[in-house]
Amino acid sequence: MDVLEKLTILTDAAKYDAACTSSGGSRSFQKGHIGNTSSSVAGCCHSFSADGRCVTLLKVLMTNRCVYDCKYCVNRRSNDTRRAIFTPEELADLTISFYRRNYIEGLFLSSGVYRSPDYTTELMIKALRLLREMYRFNGYIHAKAIPGTAPELVQGLIAGGQAAMFTAQEGAEDSEQLAADDLAAARLNEKDALVALAASGRTPYSIGALKYARARGAAAIALVCSPNSPMSKEAILTICPLPGPEVITGSTRLKAGTAQKLVLNMLSTGIMIKLGKVYGNLMVDVQATNQKLAERSKLIVMEATGCSRAEAEAALDSTDGSAKLAIFLRLSGLDVQTAKQKLKAADGYVAKALMNCTKASPVHN
Ligand code: SF4
């Protein structure tokens, strides 16, 4: 399906999505007239910018596929309607193209729930990131929160905010208070773990973050490359790889930066395992957002279950592309609905869910 076809389907599917000033009006569309407010014509809606201007927005869904069946909704699962889904790249591209042609000044984005609220939200965020970070689009975006999306499990903060990724925010890392403000905004609490980084172990922003975390009962962890540092004194646990003197003195990006990146990769991988995203040594929560990843999903299902490519494709088709569910389906011998319930009851852990089934895994325990 080409992008224009997707656009036709997904703007039409979005026209019932209330919450803006110009959708759903009762006056019908009249050729040659302006100021159309009818829900019979899709594609644009309007809102007001901070300076009071009325701005035109591209009003569209990420997808009209939905796992739910809300009776009032045109996108409900049981409705016999054409379905489409944008890739984040397609949506970002389209928005920028329209913006550059002066058709729109912003984006109103909502979505059906494709696979899961988290999965859908990740697709939407990826599109928005492309707009904000790759295209540097600074205009109006209204993105709807998908109900049921998990609160952020891992959040990254940097002294000076996101802008510091691209432009040095001089002085930001010298402020302990800035870290406290950022963590307060992120609602850090006693259930969280905070990992503060600084090669030197004495950056005020990182020290401030550790102090704030400890004061709120969160696990305060320092990741530094310097022993006995001020950060270690504020942390309950210090991870301190010692890569030795830098190749270029005065810059910690090469050895210390790389060592810290390796530690972060290990931590995030451990988190993924603990969250049930891995079965054996296979990443089963792989999200097939492009062809390479779709192919990887198939290979993972084949490897985990010992099935043929055709069987893996059939299993993935029946689970809407979820490799984890496809694996569990084949290994358990259950029907899709029961498999979903069992997997949910096992907190998403394939191995745990299999323990409650009679048909055993041929590959993993
Ligand atoms: S979850 Fe939203 S998109 Fe899906 S059927 Fe219900 S109202 Fe429609």
Describe the structure.
This protein is an alpha/beta fold and 365 residues long. It has three domains: 3-143, no CATH class; 177-273, 3-Layer(aba) Sandwich (Rossmann fold), CATH 3.40.50.10490; 278-355, Helicase, Ruva Protein, domain 3. 39% of the residues lie in helices and 11% in strands. The protein contains twelve helices and nine strands. The protein has a four-stranded mixed beta sheet. A three-stranded parallel beta sheet has the order 5-6-7. A two-stranded antiparallel ribbon has the order 8-9. The longest helix has 20 residues, at 255-274. The protein is globular and about 65 Å long. The two termini are 41 Å apart. The model is unreliable at 360-365 (pLDDT under 50). Iron/sulfur cluster is lined by residues 66, 68, 70, 73, 75-76, 112-113. Iron/sulfur cluster binds next to loops.
Please give a quick description of this structure.
The chain is of the alpha/beta class.
